[in-house]
Structures are given as structure tokens and as C-alpha cells.
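Open question from group meeting: does this chain pack into something compact, or does most of it stay loose? Before anyone orders reagents, we agreed to write out a predicted structure and look at it together. Recording both the input and the output here so the notebook holds the full record.
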Amino acid sequence: MKLATWNVNSLKVRLTQVLQWLADNPVDVLCLQETKTTDDKFPIAVFEELGFHIAFSGQKTYNGVAIISKHPITDVVKNNPLFPDEQQRIISGTINDVRVICAYVPNGQSVDSDKYQYKLKWLEGLHEWLAAELKTHPKLAILGDYNIAPADCDVHDPVVWQGQVLVSDREREAFQKLGALNLVDAFRLFDQADKTFSWWDYRQMAFRRNMGLRIDHILLSAPLAARCSACVIDKVPRKWEQPSDHTPVIATID
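C-alpha cells returned:
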């Protein structure tokens, strides 16, 4: 089973790219973030005509998440039931016997902003909910844009970024708390090349200069982590014309 996550930064703009990527990369499940489309305008027919099952939760202009699957998706839940939120940032469903959660963690804007405090509270709510979910779904994967670089090796220049949003101590502590639930960062199960990132700013020729961060993650519960045989970041879509600023992450579960 191949699971992938990709913040597409507008599905309307990048639908063709998503379809091309799926054609080139026959994954079982693709989780999308920042679809930025209302549910009534989600391109359901396009995916269904290709044989995909879909679950989605969106809003105009901002946020929005979706699960695209080769297999039926059951028991779909929108948002975190333990953290009421008008922003559409979470959708979950069961695919075969795996509970798949697609999450778009708030950015936080800056460490001195109200949005940063919202992010920390949102992450607390996520932790509480995942602790409960793991009791009923031992095979669980939570994929998405976490907007957190867990360690300095996930940052192109830790000195420049020190203390800033995405790399602050409190955000990293929140990420580590998820790990304390026995959720494993699939990418770090394997030896990886130095300076491998999943996001690059559109400015300053950041992609060409590899000035990036690894903020898109696939966390696996222990039973899935034990069967994970690979986890890679596919930089190819970031080279395309009018790309998302993020690129896909893929984990293989045997």
C-alpha cells in the first residue's frame, strides 16, 4: 500500500498536475491539503471517472483537505470532533483496515501572533483526538502539511530560521508529543540524503538554491511503521510550470 501527501496550494489551479502525478505514480491513497475549493465545486466527476474514491472537506479561498483513494473510503469524519473549528483542516476515513487522516496544520504566521497561539491549541486538540483514535484504530496514518520542521536537519539554514514560526521550540515540542503516542515519522525510518525538503518558498529562487524545509510528514502507528519499507520525497512536481510550493511525500507499507 502506497500512501502519499501533497499540499497542492489550490486544486483548481493544479488539477492537471495532480492527475498527471497520479498517472505517473500509482499510489493507493493521496491526501491533499490547501485544496481551496468549496465542496460544491470539488471536481468529483474527474476523479470518479478515473476510478478513484474521494472524501473532501473544503471552503472558499483557504484551507481544504481531500483523500483520493483507489479503494473505498468508509467511516468518513470531517474535522476534529474534540476541537470545534470553522476552518476545514482535517478529514479522515478508513481504507481497507487502515485509518487515514489528512491534516493541514495551521501555519501560525509568526510566534508573536494570535495565529501562533491558535496553532498551538489546534495541535493540543489534535494530540488529544489522536490518542483516542489510536485506541480504536491501531493501524493509523496521519498525513499532511504539518507546518513544522521537526529538527535542524529539516531546515536549510537553522541559524537564519532559529526561533521563527515552523521551527520554534513549542511547535517542535508539539510534534514530539505526537511521537510520544508511538506515531513514527516514516521519512526518518530510513537513511536520507542531507538537505532533503518538501517545501520551498516561491521567492529568492529558493527551490533552485534548495533553500527549503521539510514540513510535510507521514506519521504511522507502530503496526504500520513496522511494515514501512520506504519513504521518499518526490521533487519532480516542484520543477513543473506553475508548481505548488510543496511537493509530494510517499510512504510504502508492505
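Observations to bring back to the group:
Helices lie at 11-24, 44-49, 114-136, 158-161, 169-179, 222-225.
The first strand starts at residue 2 and ends at 7.
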